[in-house]
User: Fold this.
Amino acid sequence: MTRLFSLDGRVAVVTGARRGIGRAMAEALAAAGADIIGVSANLRDDDEVAVAVRALGRSFEARAADFTDRAAVHALGAELAGRAPDILINNAGTIARAPAAEHPIEWWDRVLEVDLSSQFVLTQSVARPMLERGSGKIVFTASLLSFQGGINVPGYAAAKSGIAGLTRALANEWAGRGVNVNAIAPGYIATDNTAALRADHERSRSILDRIPAGRWGRSDDLAGAAVFLCSAASDYVSGAIVPVDGGWLGR
Assistant:
């Protein structure tokens, strides 16, 4: 049974790998046997995620990429396609908070570029060798706001709703060609993106009151779902948006 979850011999690209959820996913995949190509805006070869992956006996290569720069993402995609990785985790993302009526259009454009458009550009390139050989695993990081509208984050809600649709669209085209496309929807996880919410005592309490698990999530709560969706255990899972939210959506 454990072989179902083994990633021995696999090469995984993880974007947004420097910290938070991306780092947790990279380390989980390495623990399952995968070598990691990590990508983040300022990732270095000696960052903590690189050290942790190598301590698990796997290789780690760092790539720095600005996901607001379409040309840079195209170049990254071409390079990674040449490596023909087995796994792609699209986790890079950003968020901007302001009421919709005052939300700067520049913020909207930046969030949509990083959280949605760059995801498609990179996936399109990396998926081509997967489709040619007839195997591959692609996992997007969706959100609770793939299902809900949120407050003061119109660009983020639009982008993450788009990620859910993109996941299903690609799954429809690629499942029959051996490439599984799925997404993980994290709940309220204690990362940099939720620091402002956790600092607001009333908002934090209202969030915790709705989570049946009674706590904020941790980045490593995403590890099991990531390994599952990247392994043979999920070979008949396609187009799924898997919530990891402490029960939030079931409330």
User: Anything to note?
Assistant: The mean pLDDT is 96. Helices lie at 20-31, 48-55, 70-83, 105-133, 154-174, 195-199, 201-210, 223-230. Strands lie at 11-15, 35-40, 60-64, 87-90, 136-141, 179-186, 241-244. The first helix runs from residue 20 to 31.
